[in-house]
Amino acid sequence: MDALLQELRTAVAERRMPPPRTRLALLETADPALARRAGRLLATLPPPSAEDAPVVPVTVLATATIGPYEQILRAQLVAAGVLPELTVGEHGSLDRELATGSFARSSPRFVSALMDESFFLPRDWSAAGVSALEEHVRARLAALTRNLPTGGPTLILHTVPMPAELRDGLVSRQARTQVTKLWYELNAALLALAEQHAAVEVVDLAGLLAEEPYAARDDRTHRYGDLPYTDGALLVLAREVRRVVQAGLGLSRKVLALDLDGTLWGGVLGEAGAGGVQLGGLYPGNCYSAFQRAVLRLREQGVILVLASKNDAEPVEEALSGHPEMLLRADAFAARAVNWSSKAENLSRVADALGLPPSAFVFVDDTEVERAEVADRFPEIGVVSAAGDPAHLVRRLLRTGWFDALSLTDADLRRADLYRARAERAEFSDGFEAAADYLRALKIEVEIAPVTPYTVARAAQLAARTNQFNLTGVRFGEAETAELAARPDHLVATVTVSDRFGSDGIVGALWAERGTRTWRVLNLVLSCRVLGRGIETAIAAWLSEQAAGSGARTLVGRYVPTKRNRVAAAFWTQAGFTRDGDGDGDGDGDGDGDGTFVLDLTTGTVDLPGWITTSERSGHE
């Protein structure tokens, strides 16, 4: 504990975010006291020090005293690489803030609501009138539902543990069963709010506490200080809120890189042979089967799998294809680095081949030396230990929420196959001397269409997750995207790309304001996996044609630099736009960088690359 806190003190004193390894240790702590002390230290971390972290306004509203929740939540968010600007509402202000919407005046990105049973139960309830109690709870739920926001910040609610005083205060077994059923219905209705409201997320605190070593409540602190939850319960809630924020900001990982010996199976393949590794059957083989099953489910949800093992390729191929208990066959992996080279170097090559940064990776290995080497070379890679009792493998992998998404789209479910096709394109390109010949041979088609109720989630997901080709860094959420799409003075469109190897799915999105004389691009994002093919220029060509066809005289775009979007810096000038004289610039003298760029539509539109064909589809299909 002391070492971790000292690392945090040093980071705060040096006005910088704690390094990734320190944040990982903080992320995984199960000690509420440590989380509380860490959050108190990090409260003085100034925004200028967090150049590599998004500064995110977060408001906390509660039905009771929040206690150390502010500190614990701050520690969790900083651990995830987020610098929160926390605002805490007045004691018991949740009802009023939701009814008036006043919490939105401070423009938070997320609102965490800390609720206890007092929000739903009358202060004095009669054990002889269970029906009246049911009516009151349902009325309070209805009031909460009526006051939920339809847009703006993401409101994070949670299920509420049933208080022992309520359950045990009923001597009739029948009445106790009736009220318990009511409480389950209440929590089920709370969870359903996330399905009914785009701006609402709900975490299952009541369910999570059933598997945690923390009591939900301490009676003494509850009576003494109106503290509804123990510090441990608050840590559980803060973890889940952090996972929502992490997913909402697009900070989730895409790639799971796995060792073999001691990770996907027990034992050493080179010594035991393919038939001698521990997999399936009784303990410990059943632990590795359970782990493979969990990994396979992640792949089914779009996580890209990579093998990173120091082994000879032939016995590995034999084990993957021949072992009867093997769930992860060779075709489950988008890339395999099975050799005796450095794992850090192998992961670097795989990242280049997939076109993804190291920050998109999670690496699982049972050997401390290998994990340390990867962490030293690429501190941004999430590292998970597979050492120790294999019974804990699944929990270690999943508990952090590395791969969480607010929702899954068709592109997510197809991601593994899409990245395999990327590798096939790279192999296909070897047969061409000129890049233009290769691009023509790909037969690229770009389809641009207004968002629909079926694609709005994917557009919002691209806004949240895309960092490299993200022109302004504006993260339009799902509710905001739907709202803009419904306005006649705005355009929100998705971009689908396909070629001779198949469809990449929806890989881009744009948000634009349509004025009578001027169209303004609010943001344009494009997945890194299709960069280098001229897709972005094709989008600009299509957009300029749309604007000119509407009678507009100018098309205006903007580039706002971030730590990770330098690849898009020259986009506007390369497309034929001219820097507005009022732009800030970055001093490089080449016309790129931060600023506003203008295309005079009276003199022409952007030229479509000769190797691309475009089509337009109605958004009402």
UniProtKB/TrEMBL annotation:
<dbReference type="InterPro" id="IPR016181">
    <property type="entry name" value="Acyl_CoA_acyltransferase"/>
</dbReference>
<dbReference type="InterPro" id="IPR036412">
    <property type="entry name" value="HAD-like_sf"/>
</dbReference>
<dbReference type="InterPro" id="IPR036514">
    <property type="entry name" value="SGNH_hydro_sf"/>
</dbReference>
<dbReference type="InterPro" id="IPR010037">
    <property type="entry name" value="FkbH_domain"/>
</dbReference>
<dbReference type="InterPro" id="IPR010033">
    <property type="entry name" value="HAD_SF_ppase_IIIC"/>
</dbReference>
<dbReference type="InterPro" id="IPR023214">
    <property type="entry name" value="HAD_sf"/>
</dbReference>
<protein>
    <submittedName>
        <fullName>HAD-IIIC family phosphatase</fullName>
    </submittedName>
</protein>
